[in-house]
Amino acid sequence: MNKQCAIIGVGMTPFGKFPDQTVRMMSEQAARAALADAGIAAKDVDQVYFSNAVAGLITGQEMVRGQAALRFLGLQGQPVVNVENACASGSTAFNLAWNAVRSGQAQVALVVGAERMTHEDKRVSFGALAKAVDLEEELPTHVGSGSGSIFMDIYAEKTRKYMAATGCTREDLAQIVVKSRRAASLNPLAQFRTPTTVEEVLASRVISDPLTLQMCSSIGDGAAAVVLCSPAFLKKMTAPKPVWVGASVMVSGTPDASLDPAALRATFSAYEAAGVDPRDLHVVELHDASAPSEVMYYESLGFCAPGEGVGLLRSGATDLNGRISVNPSGGLLSKGHPIGATGAAQIVELTQQLRGESGPRQREGAKLALAENGGGQVGLDGAAAVSTILHV
To answer: Is the pTM of this model over 0.90?
Structure first.
């Protein structure tokens, strides 16, 4: 399998609501941790890719977000590329860094994804998220009918159709949250670490029927960072712990649905590029912005046959240390979803899994992993999607 680019360092802050933390503070913490994990200095970095989606709307910082956030890390002079691509910003930054390394443009690249989404007025946070659609497009009638993010109205409509077609129940949706919280309880950096029950999930307030509060990813803050390098640089290291990037594919959506959904195109293209069968995956971090997204992806991403997603969930095969452990970090639902950091955080979790460093949430013998990250909505499709295959 492809060994043109290796991940040699990862770092991450706790995810949560931290009104006293700035984007700079969180970025510095994650970047320093990743550089220390790699055993390199800032001067060794050739290129920097900084991911952030909503700072302009939350804090007012625009145009030079990465240069401002990372200015005191000793990276002066290196090119800093600012990346904004909705909830897929972090994975887009990673994709660009991977391409830079494997093409020979950089020996070492640093990816930092950071987001501060909390604001004293929640309407500001929700308003920022609502900008990830085509504002000149008329929204469907069901969007805006719920009591939160317009994206939860979009997910709710898809969920109702899925439940009608497959027999998936509210209890099944709640069980995804139970699984997610159980994983997060073992992740010291996760936002929601208290286990829950099916009854508690169903009793939480309805956001957009059938989605309850616990079935929806929350507003959060945090940062994650990844160091990538070339095989030539890797040979210079004294104690490398490489995780290889088998493939990384980024696509945009087709608003008229003339092609398959963006997430499917990105993921199956990554499978093909890496020579991977999805049923051979050991561990997956996928974009569970709402609970039902996870079980739908079981089918659409090829983990099981169409119509068998609920059965796969009920079997326990996607639970911690299952055949295909899905979202062992807690996922967006429980680890948290500071949108500019999410894609990078998925890579952090999978790198640690493939190194065997995930402690009680470790998938034993993990050798092959998938990260799937989407962002925004334009017409009938997601606006952006990035899927990445990692292996050891």
So the answer is: yes
